[in-house]
């Protein structure tokens, strides 16, 4: 009992996620720096390509996200076999979806690049990068789903270790192929793409090794064909609104990137550099939000609704304090940070013009993420879907066009629009969590059995 208490405490869950995000960020920053040495055009291409990849990832992340929450709930309810079945189905289905996407991205790289109004001179570079990295989307699907399943069993250290190894290998191979070092040929952006494939392949192998032993009963090859219709329905019930929510965000971001593309490669590159800088500010809060979701799902599954309710507030307030401090740090290091990535004064000035807006944006994002993830953890995913469809398109994308293009505010107008979107959704999910609708529904069946006696509970704190 004590071991389980520690396993699902907020601190125990959060610190490996934080370390994983921190090192991914540092290595990702190095990766961006390396790509910038190829050219600022290469950075713009990679930034747009990553938005395309995020868009297609929705198809398998719908299954992975729903399965992750359900795994934590089933383990909380002491239903280990059901959790195991959910994990297996998620991996096999996501892998099949990823394989189909790999073929599509390899064959349709150029039409996709043109769809988002990329400058014609950048199309050959985009074709190279999208076709190579996109052909490995099956590996992306497997790593994402395996990491989610393993993490929601309470083992956040395993995915952390794999992510660190994957990113170190990726940076080393980037260096080798970009510069023609360590006996490798000099391939530029093509080398970056190949490096991405190799590192993801190795990560997939390591995560599969962990996955087969993560549940009480070891997973064997013959188990990969298992399918339980009832459990799959539960995955979809939780997952499809998450998928709509994620697709709404990614597609609205793609629309915003298409607005940026009409502003030129400098605006695209500035936004890509700012994405890296924003990650520094938000990674602590994001790690708290992710770990809080796992904890709340486990508490909810075990019937501890009041503890789950309090955990939603605790995780959000802790994350908000951390993000507030980091917003101040963002303002301090912003100019120096951007100078490492580009010597183009136009790009740097564009990014710096949005620095204060970016710092103001982050607390709103934390409120939205904290309470939004809490709602997802208890299965209240449709509410997030509804407000996302309205706010992301009507506010984030709509205002981006009006302010950024129509009124000529440029990149600053886009940041104002994103800020309004995050704060609006943050307020709405906070109100929803306070009303406890799903928690009250879950408490109803317990009223008829309270006379039998209390159920032993596990106590959760923010530290083990």
TrEMBL record:
<dbReference type="InterPro" id="IPR047135">
    <property type="entry name" value="YsiQ"/>
</dbReference>
<keyword id="KW-1003">Cell membrane</keyword>
<dbReference type="GO" id="GO:0015297">
    <property type="term" value="F:antiporter activity"/>
</dbReference>
<keyword id="KW-1133">Transmembrane helix</keyword>
<dbReference type="InterPro" id="IPR048279">
    <property type="entry name" value="MdtK-like"/>
</dbReference>
<feature type="transmembrane region" description="Helical">
    <location>
        <begin position="52"/>
        <end position="73"/>
    </location>
</feature>
<dbReference type="GO" id="GO:0005886">
    <property type="term" value="C:plasma membrane"/>
</dbReference>
<dbReference type="Pfam" id="PF01554">
    <property type="entry name" value="MatE"/>
</dbReference>
<feature type="transmembrane region" description="Helical">
    <location>
        <begin position="280"/>
        <end position="300"/>
    </location>
</feature>
<protein>
    <submittedName>
        <fullName>MATE family efflux transporter</fullName>
    </submittedName>
</protein>
<keyword id="KW-0812">Transmembrane</keyword>
<keyword id="KW-0813">Transport</keyword>
<feature type="transmembrane region" description="Helical">
    <location>
        <begin position="409"/>
        <end position="431"/>
    </location>
</feature>
<feature type="transmembrane region" description="Helical">
    <location>
        <begin position="346"/>
        <end position="362"/>
    </location>
</feature>
<feature type="transmembrane region" description="Helical">
    <location>
        <begin position="158"/>
        <end position="178"/>
    </location>
</feature>
<dbReference type="InterPro" id="IPR002528">
    <property type="entry name" value="MATE_fam"/>
</dbReference>
<feature type="transmembrane region" description="Helical">
    <location>
        <begin position="127"/>
        <end position="146"/>
    </location>
</feature>
<feature type="transmembrane region" description="Helical">
    <location>
        <begin position="190"/>
        <end position="212"/>
    </location>
</feature>
<feature type="transmembrane region" description="Helical">
    <location>
        <begin position="312"/>
        <end position="334"/>
    </location>
</feature>
<feature type="transmembrane region" description="Helical">
    <location>
        <begin position="85"/>
        <end position="107"/>
    </location>
</feature>
<feature type="transmembrane region" description="Helical">
    <location>
        <begin position="254"/>
        <end position="274"/>
    </location>
</feature>
<feature type="transmembrane region" description="Helical">
    <location>
        <begin position="383"/>
        <end position="403"/>
    </location>
</feature>
<dbReference type="GO" id="GO:0042910">
    <property type="term" value="F:xenobiotic transmembrane transporter activity"/>
</dbReference>
<keyword id="KW-0472">Membrane</keyword>
């Amino acid at each position: 009992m004590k071991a389980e208490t520690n396993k699902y405490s907020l601190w125990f869950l959060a610190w490996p996620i934080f370390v994983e995000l921190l090192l991914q960020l540092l290595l990702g920053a190095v990766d961006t720096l390396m790509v910038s040495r190829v050219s600022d055009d290469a950075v713009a291409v990679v930034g747009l390509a990553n938005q395309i990849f995020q868009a297609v990832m929705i198809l398998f992340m719908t299954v992975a996200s729903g399965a992750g929450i359900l795994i934590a709930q089933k383990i909380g309810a002491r239903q280990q076999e059901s959790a195991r079945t959910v994990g297996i189905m998620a991996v096999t289905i996501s892998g099949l979806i990823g394989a189909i996407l790999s073929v599509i991205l390899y064959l349709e790289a150029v039409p996709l690049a043109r769809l988002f109004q990329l400058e014609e001179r950048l199309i050959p570079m985009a074709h190279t990068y999208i076709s190579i990295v996109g052909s490995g989307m099956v590996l992306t699907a497997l790593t994402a789903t395996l990491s989610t399943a393993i993490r929601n069993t309470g083992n956040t250290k395993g995915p952390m270790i794999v992510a660190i190894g994957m990113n170190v290998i990726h940076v080393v191979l980037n260096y080798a192929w970009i510069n023609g070092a360590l006996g490798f040929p000099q391939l530029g952006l093509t080398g970056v793409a190949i490096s991405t494939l190799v590192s993801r392949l190795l990560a997939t192998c390591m995560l599969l090794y962990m996955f087969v032993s993560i549940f009480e009963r070891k997973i064997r090859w013959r188990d990969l064909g298992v399918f339980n219709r009832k459990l799959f329905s539960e995955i979809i019930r939780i997952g499809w609104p998450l998928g709509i929510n994620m697709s709404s965000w990614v597609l609205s971001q793609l629309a915003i990137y298409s607005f940026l593309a009409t502003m030129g490669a400098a605006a695209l590159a500035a936004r890509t550099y700012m994405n890296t800088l924003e990650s520094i500010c938000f990674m602590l809060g994001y790690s708290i939000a992710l770990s809080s979701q796992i904890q709340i799902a486990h508490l909810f599954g075990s019937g501890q609704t009041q503890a789950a309710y309090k955990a939603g507030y605790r995780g959000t307030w802790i994350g908000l304090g951390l993000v507030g401090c980091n917003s101040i740090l963002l303002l301090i290091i912003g100019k120096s940070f951007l100078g490492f990535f580009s010597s183009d004064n136009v790009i740097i000035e564009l990014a710096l013009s949005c620095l204060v807006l970016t710092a103001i944006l982050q607390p709103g994002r934390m409120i939205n993420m904290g309470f939004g993830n809490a709602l997802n953890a208890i299965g209240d995913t449709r509410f997030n879907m509804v407000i996302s469809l309205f706010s992301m398109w009507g506010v984030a994308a709509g205002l981006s066009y009006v302010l950024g293009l129509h009124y000529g505010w440029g990149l600053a107008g886009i940041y104002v629009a994103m800020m309004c979107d995050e704060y609006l959704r943050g307020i709405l999910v906070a109100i929803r969590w306070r009303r406890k609708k799903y928690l009250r529904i879950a408490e109803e069946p317990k009223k008829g059995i309270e006379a039998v006696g209390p159920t032993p509970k596990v106590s959760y704190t923010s530290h083990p």
